[in-house]
Each structure stands twice: as structure tokens, then as C-alpha cells.
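ok so for the tutorial part 2 we go from a plain amino acid sequence to predicted C-alpha cells. step 1 is just haveing the sequence, like this:
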Amino acid sequence: MDVKRYNIILKPDYTRVLYLPFHSMAKERIAKILSRIQVMDENHVRQKLDEVLSSFQKRHTSLIQFFENRFEKVKRYTGKNKNLSKERKLLIGAYFTQEYAIESSALFNPSMVWHPDQSGVAMGSKRFILSLRAIGEGHISSITFRTGVISAKYMINMDESSRYVTTADNRPDQQFEKKLFRRKMSELGLLDMFSESILNTLPDYFTFSELKAGVKAILNQHNVGRNEIVASNIIMLARSNYEISFLPMQDLSARVIYPSAP
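step 2 — the prediction. this is what the C-alpha cells look like for a chain of 262 residues:
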């Protein structure tokens, strides 16, 4: 087999992605931010929202929808005040959104697979997908993608990457296989009589909701103490394993897998 080696130079850029810096916030800080927004009059709200949109709308797709989704994540902290205007909801979503340059520090560790769609490729050529480790601000790692074509003469042409990048939608309530989940628990030192009793309440394939219900039921039957720590770690293990989805029309270079484990 004729093995050829090539250097592919990929330039990191300052493409930005939006995410929710919410899980690390204390409830007191969340409440303070919300209280400042809720005392604004509607004119001030519209002014601040216009400033945000004029600054960021050209850098991101579906920005309004993104802010709406972010508001849904924090609306339980708004208290009894449910009659909020659409503009105020969007502004709240914006306050709980952070922009992050995913490739500002480095772009490396390429891994290549053949693209599942080989239509429209010249005879002898083949389309491929590269996954890459992107290091951004604060040295947080994410996974980004590029595509390209290798010609019959081993020439590599990279496709132009998108200007817009979007994170995936997480689906934490996917099915878990109990056999595999038990093995992971064992690796983390979480297997004992208490955790086994939780697993015994679950079917061979269970959802995150079923796991939470099982943990709560068994926890009510035992002394808290260490059992509460084990229960918390079991839930954390489940939250660290999740399915993601992107819109089918999104170009691969417009997708980023950003870490969202606890």
C-alpha cells in the first residue's frame, strides 16, 4: 500500500459560540441579576435589548430564539412575576448568555473519517470529515469539525468553514443501559448495597427521569449521610452522559460540541 504523508494547516480563528454560564452561578447571584432587570422600565428594557442585538446579531444565527431558550432555563427564578413582556424575557436571556471564542488558543488533534455523503464527488476522489480539538478562552476544550475532499491524485482541498457556529441541543433523558451504567459506577467506586438497591428498581434500559425517581425512592428509605453523597454522584454520572442533536441543515463546520457536564 502506498502511504503518503501530508501536512494540513488549519488556522484557528475567533469564531464565537453562545452558551449559558448558568450552572456555576450561585442562586443569590442569579436573583440579583434578575432583580436589576425587573426594576427597569419598559423603555430602558427596549433600549438595552436594542444595544445587544445591534452588537451581536450579525455574529450569530437565530439570536432571538437563543435568548428565548435561555430565558426558559432561568424563568423559575423570576418568582411570581409571570407577566413579563417579550422584550424583558429576551433581555433576561441575554444577561444569562456568554459569548466564547472556541478556537482562540489552538486547533489540533485532527481525526479523519470518510463522509457518509459521497454524492457529487469526482471519480477517484473521496469526501472526508475532520474532527478537531479546539482550545478557546480559559483553555476550555471543545470539538469542532471541518470537511474536505481528497482527489485521485492525493490532493487535499478543504471546504470553506462557516462564519457561524452553534452548540448542540442536549437531550439528557436518553436511555441508559443498566449493565454499562453499573460498570461505570464500579469504576468510580460507587457500587455498594445502597446503589445496588437503586439499580434493582430500574429496568435493563432506563431513562434519566426513571433514575432520578429510583434514587429519590431509595434515598427516602435509608439514612442520608454517605448515601446522599453516593446518590449525588450517581446523578452526576448520568448527567455527564447525554445525547446531542443539531439541525440537519447546519453545515458540519457550523457545529461545535461544547462541554456541558456538571
